[in-house]
Design a protein that fits this description.
The structure is a single chain. The protein has 535 residues and is α+β, with helices and mostly antiparallel strands. It folds into three domains: 19-219, Histidine kinase-like ATPase, C-terminal domain (Heat Shock Protein 90, 2-Layer Sandwich); 237-304, Helicase, Ruva Protein, domain 3 (Orthogonal Bundle); 317-535, Ribosomal Protein S5, domain 2, CATH 3.30.230.10. Helices cover 40% and strands 19% of the residues. The protein contains 16 helices and 14 strands. The protein has helices at residues 7-11, 19-25, 35-56, 88-96, 117-129, 192-202, 242-251, 257-264, 270-280, 293-304, 321-332, 386-392, 436-488, 492-507, 509-512, 523-534; strands spanning 62-71, 74-80, 133-139, 144-152, 157-166, 173-182, 207-212, 215-219, 336-341, 345-347, 350-360, 368-373, 376-378, 411-419. The relative contact order is 0.09. It binds adenosine-5'-diphosphate (ADP) and magnesium ion.
C-alpha cells in the first residue's frame, strides 16, 4: 500500500503567513531571545523612537523610563517622551501592525529603519502576559488620545480594546507607552542601565530619567545643542540592482528614461544619464515604463562602466569630536579623553562616517568597547561586528598600549558609525556587517586616536619614572649629606639643602609634565600600516 500524499492533499496545508505570526514564532529575531534581554529590547525600541522623533521635530529630548516589578518576572515598563506626538489616526497602525513606519522608504540617518520595533514590543507583551499596551499621545495643540490595544496576530492588524480623548490643558506633546511584559531585571553589562548610560554618551543633548526597580538614576545633558538635522537623500546608482531598477522604472513620474536617472538618483546629471542610455543602446527619450527586461540588464552593465560622482555626504549627522569627548567625560569621568571624526565616505553607494573616541583612567577601571550605529549603543553580538574586527585588528602594542586582543588598560573605546543605511547583520540590529571599507575606516580612526593616547601615556610614564628617581634622591639626601660632611667638614644641613635644591632643579615640576615627551610612532608609518592591514 502506497503511503505517499498527493499534491492535492498537501495543497490543503498551504496558507499565507502573516508577518505577526512569523515574528511570534521567531521573536529572537527581534531581540526577545531571553527575559533579561526582553526588557532591554522594549526600552531600547521606545527610547530610540523618542530620540528619532525629537530629533526630527527639533526638540531637546526629555525622556522618562520606568521599570516596575509587578510580580515574579512580570514588569510594567513606561516610556514617555516630549516629542511631536503621533496623529490620532496613525497610533493604532504604528503600535498594532508590524512593518509600519515612516523611516523605511526614506534615505535618512535615523535610529529606526524597518517599522517593526515598537509593534514588536506590543506583540511580545501580549504573547508573554496576555496584556494589551496603553498608548497616550498628543501633538500639543489638540486633545490627548489614549488607546489600549493588542495586535490581531492572524491578520497583522490592530485590535483596539478602548479609546479615550481628554482635554490637553497644559499643551503637552509627546508619547507615553505602558507595556506589561515578562522579563528579568538585571544591572550587568548588557542591561537597560548600560544601554541608557551609553545612550547618554552618544546623545549628550538628551536628558533621561530612569526609575529602575532599584531607584532613580538621572543622566544630565552635556549640551543644549541639538545634533545637526540629517538630510534625506536619494539612492545612488552604484548600489542599484536589476530588480530595484525594474521596479523604479515602473513607479517613476519621469516621462523619459534620461530624466528618470536625473530625478530618481543622487548626483546624476543629464550628460551622465544620456551616456548610460547610449552605452546600453537604449533611447534616452523613451518612456521608463517601456524599457524592456533585457534593456534593464544592459543599463545595469552600462552603469558599472560609467564614472559616477559620489553621493553627497552632508546628509550625515555625526557627533563630532567635541561632543564625543563631552559625552565620555560626563558619563565616565576619565582622566583623559580624545576623539577622531573621519571624513564621510561611501559603501555600496550609501554614505557613512566613522568616529572614534578613547577615554583613559580616572573612574574607568577596566577595558571596554562601546559600539554605536546612528548613536544607538549595540550591546549584543560583539563578536560578529565589523567594529570588533577593526579593534582587534589594531596592533595596540605599537602605541605603547598593553593588549591581548582588546587593550588591557583601563580604557573605553567608543566607535560610532553614522550612515543613511547601516548594514546590520539581523533585524534585531546588534552588529554591523563586515564590509572591508567600513573596517578600514574604523581602523584608520582608531590608529589616529591610539596615537593621541600613546603621546599621553608616554608622557605620564616618563613623569612616573622621574618622580621615582626624585623620590630616591630625596630619600638618600640626609645620608649623602652626612658622608659629604665627613669628607669636606662643611655643615651637613647646608649640604642637604643643596642636594635637595639640585634634585628640584634637575627633576622639578617643569620637566615632569606629561606633555613633554614626543610620540614614538611616526604619523606616516602608522598611516601606511593602516592601509597595509586592510589590503
Ligand atoms: N515616540 C514616538 N514619537 C513619534 N513618532 C513615533 C514614536 N514612536 C514611533 N513613532 C513613529 O512610528 C513609526 C514606527 O516605529 P517603529 O515600529 O519603532 O519603526 P521604526 O523606528 O523602525 O520606523 C516610526 O517610523 C515613527 O514614525
Ligand atoms: Mg523604532
Amino acid at each position: 500500500m502506497n503511503n505517499h500524499k498527493t499534491a492535492e492533499e498537501l495543497a490543503k496545508q498551504h496558507r499565507e503567513i502573516s508577518i505577526s505570526q512569523f515574528f511570534e514564532k521567531n521573536r529572537h529575531l527581534l531581540g526577545y531571545d531571553n527575559k533579561i534581554k526582553a526588557l532591554l529590547t522594549i526600552v531600547k525600541e521606545a527610547v530610540d523612537n523618542a530620540l528619532d522623533a525629537t530629533e526630527d521635530a527639533r526638540i531637546l529630548p526629555e525622556i522618562y523610563v520606568k521599570i516596575e516589578e509587578l510580580s515574579r518576572e512580570k514588569y510594567k515598563i513606561i516610556i514617555k517622551d516630549n516629542g511631536p506626538g503621533i496623529v490620532k489616526k496613525q497610533v493604532s497602525k504604528i503600535f498594532g501592525k508590524l512593518l509600519y513606519g515612516s523611516k523605511f522608504h526614506r534615505l535618512k540617518q535615523s535610529r529606526g529603519q524597518q517599522g517593526i520595533g515598537i509593534s514588536g514590543c506590543v506583540l511580545y507583551s501580549q504573547l508573554t502576559t496576555g496584556e494589551p499596551t496603553e498608548i497616550v499621545s498628543s501633538t500639543g495643540e489638540g486633545k490627548v488620545h489614549k488607546y489600549i490595544l493588542k495586535i490581531d496576530v492572524d491578520r497583522n492588524e490592530p485590535k483596539i480594546i478602548s479609546e479615550e480623548t481628554f482635554d490637553n490643558y497644559d499643551k503637552w506633546h509627546g508619547v507615553q507607552i505602558t507595556f506589561i511584559a515578562e522579563g528579568i531585571y538585571r544591572e550587568h553589562k548588557q542591561s537597560v542601565l548600560e544601554y541608557l548610560k551609553e545612550t547618554a554618551i552618544s546623545n549628550p543633548h538628551a536628558h533621561i530619567i530612569f526609575d529602575s526597580p532599584h531607584g532613580r538614576i538621572e543622566f544630565h545633558r552635556g549640551t543644549d545643542k541639538l545634533p545637526p538635522e540629517p538630510k534625506e537623500i536619494k539612492p545612488h546608482l552604484y548600489g542599484v540592482e536589476v530588480g530595484i531598477l525594474e521596479r523604479m522604472l515602473q513607479e517613476t513620474r519621469a516621462r523619459a528614461l534620461a530624466s528618470f536617472f536625473v530625478t530618481e538618483f543622487s548626483r546624476v546629471g543629464k550628460q551622465t544619464a544620456e551616456e548610460i542610455c547610449n552605452k546600453a543602446g537604449v533611447d534616452p527619450k523613451i518612456s521608463p515604463r517601456k524599457v524592456e527586461h533585457h534593456q534593464v540588464v544592459e543599463l545595469i552593465e552600462a552603469i558599472k562602466e560609467t564614472k559616477l560622482t559620489r553621493p553627497p555626504t552632508d546628509c550625515l549627522s555625526p557627533l563630532g569630536e567635541e561632543l564625543i569627548i563631552n559625552g565620555l567625560k560626563k558619563e565616565l569621568n576619565p582622566e583623559w579623553a580624545a576623539a577622531v571624526s573621519r571624513s564621510p565616505t561611501v559603501y555600496r553607494g550609501w554614505p557613512f562616517q566613522i568616529e572614534v573616541g578613547i577615554a583613559y583612567g580616572g573612574s574607568i577601571t577596566e577595558p571596554k568597547l562601546m559600539r554605536f550605529a546612528n548613536r544607538v549603543p549595540l550591546l549584543y553580538q560583539q563578536g560578529d561586528c565589523a567594529i570588533t574586527k577593526a579593534v582587534t585588528g589594531i596592533d595596540w602594542k605599537r602605541y605603547g598600549i598593553h593588549a591581548t586582543q582588546l587593550p588591557d588598560e583601563p580604557v573605553v573605546i567608543f566607535v560610532h558609525m553614522a550612515s543613511v543605511w547601516v548594514p546590520f547583520t539581523s533585524e534585531s540590529k546588534e552588529a554591523i556587517a563586515n564590509y572591508p571599507i567600513i573596517i578600514k575606516e574604523i581602523k584608520l580612526a582608531l590608529q589616529d586616536c591610539a596615537r593621541k593616547l600613546s603621546i599621553y601615556l608616554s608622557g605620564i610614564r616618563k613623569a612616573q619614572r622621574i618622580a621615582e628617581k626624585k623620590m630616591i634622591y630625596e630619600r638618600y639626601a640626609p645620608d649623602t649629606a652626612y658622608a659629604l660632611c665627613e669628607l669636606t667638614n662643611e655643615k651637613k644641613e647646608e649640604i642637604e639643602k643643596m642636594i635637595l635644591k639640585l634634585v628640584e632643579m634637575r627633576w622639578g615640576e617643569t620637566e615632569a609634565g606629561p606633555q613633554t615627551e614626543q610620540p614614538e610612532i611616526q604619523e606616516k608609518e602608522a598611516e601606511n600600516n593602516g592601509n597595509r592591514e586592510e589590503a
